[in-house]
Fold:
Amino acid sequence: MVNSFKDIFAQYKWEDIKDFIYSTKPHQVKEVLQKNELTPNDFAILISPAAKTFLPQMIQKSQYLTRQRFGKNIWLFAPLYLSNECKNICTYCGFSFNNKIPRKTLNDNEIRQEAEFLKKKGFEHVLIVTGEDNQNVHVDYLNNAIDILKNYFSNISIEVQPLEYEEYQLLAQKNIYAVLVYQETYNINNYKQYHPKGKKSNFYYRLETPDRIGKAEIHKIGLGVLLGLEDWRVDSFFTALHLNYLQKKYWKSRFSISFPRIRPAIGAIQENIHIQDEELKQLVCAYRIFNPDVELSLSTRERAEFRDELVDIGFTTMSAESKTNPGGYTIEPTSLEQFEIDDHRSLEEIIQVLKNKGLEAVFKDWEYALFD
Structure:
C-alpha cells in the first residue's frame, strides 16, 4: 500500500536512474516523440543527452500542446517577500541562518504598503515568500497576512516552510490559491550537505509535504528542484515521478513546475553542475510533452533575452518586476536579497514583449468572492 510518495521514492535508486538516462539511444527518443501518453521513464528519455539533437521537434510539439491546452495566455504574478527570518542553514540561500544579516519581518502596515504598490502596478496574483522560521513567521502570522492581502488581490499563493496537514487545512479554508514547496534535490545521499542545520535538513519530512498539501485539497501544488545542486537530469526525473504520483492521487488539485537555477547570493555556494540554456529548453519541452496539463513557471532568475526565447515554448506563468527581499518594493529596496534576479524589466515592458509574440498577459483566473 502506498501511503505517500516516500513509498514510491524507495523503489528507485539515483545511480540506476542516471545510468538509464545516459544510456538512452536516439531511436528511443524517436519512439517517445511519437507517443501520446508518456510514463516517467519516457520523460527520462526526453531529458537524456541523446535527445539534444531532437530539440527542434520537441519545441514544435511543446508549443502545439501548450496552445492546445492553455491558448496564448501567460499568467503574470509578483513575489511578495514578508520575512527573511530563517532557522535553516542552506548553503545556496542568502537567508541562511549562518549569514550575519539584518533580519526583517513586515508588520501589518508594511504589508499593506507593499500590497498597494503591486496593486497599482496591475498585479492580481502575488506569491507570499518567507524564510523558514516557525517562531516569527508562524501560521497565525501567515493567516493574518492573507487576510490583509485578500483586500487587494484575487490570487494569493505561498512559498513558506513546510507545514502540518492541519495547518494546510486552515490555509485551504482561507481559499489560498497555491502552495509551492521545492525539494531542492532528490539526491538523499547529498541532501544533508546542502541543508546541515534546521528543520529543512529532514529530507523525508520535506519529501512528504506535497502529500499533506494534497490531502488538504489546496487548489494548486507547486514542485521543483534547484538546478545546479546535483545532476539536473536525475533530479528532474524524480520531480516528474513525484508529479505523476501526486496528480493521480490528488486529482482535485492542479500542479505547477518551476525551474530555479542557482543565482548569486550573499554567503551562497556556486552551482555544482551547470545546466546550459539549450538544456533548459529541452527540460521545459520534456515536461510539456510528458504532461500537457501541468503549469510551467518562468522566473526572473533568467536574463531578459533568454526569458523572451523561453516564454512561448511551453510556459504558462511568469513573474515580473520581482524583488526578493522583505519590503523590497517600497520600504527597504536595498536590503539583502534572497538571490539576485537577472530580468529587471518593468511589468509594462514584459506585457509589451508578450504582445509582440502574440501572447496575452493574464492577471486573474481565481476570485475569492466566488468561494466566500
In short: The chain is about 40% helix and 10% strand. The beta strands are 73-83, 125-130, 155-159, 178-180, 220-223, 254-258, 295-298, 317-319, 360-362. The two ends are 37 Å apart (CA to CA). The mean pLDDT is 94.
